[in-house]
Amino acid sequence: MKPLSLLLALSLVANAAFITTRVMHSSSARTDENLHARSSSADASAASASGKSDAVARADFIAALKADNVEALRDVLREAGLPDATVRMIVSSAIWSRYRDRMKSLQPKPDPNQPWWKNQNNNWYGNSTREQRAEMRRLQREAKDESVRLLGPDKDSNAWGWQDPRISFLPEAKREDLQEIEQDYQDLLNEVQQEMQGFNLPSDAEKIRFLQEEKKRDLAAILTPQEMADYELRMSPTAQQLSWKMNRFDGSEDEYRKIFALQQAFDSTQQLDAWGNPIGQSPDDWKKRQDAEKQLGAQIKEALGAERYAEYLRSQNHEYQQLATAAKRLSLPPETATQVYNLRNEVAAESQRIADNTSLGNDQKKQALADLAKKIRGQVRASLGEEAAQVYLKNGMHWLSSVEHGNVVTFSENGQHSESRGLPPEQKKPAAKP
Question: How far is it, in rounded angstroms, from Cα 25 to Cα 171?
Answer without folding.
Answer: 43
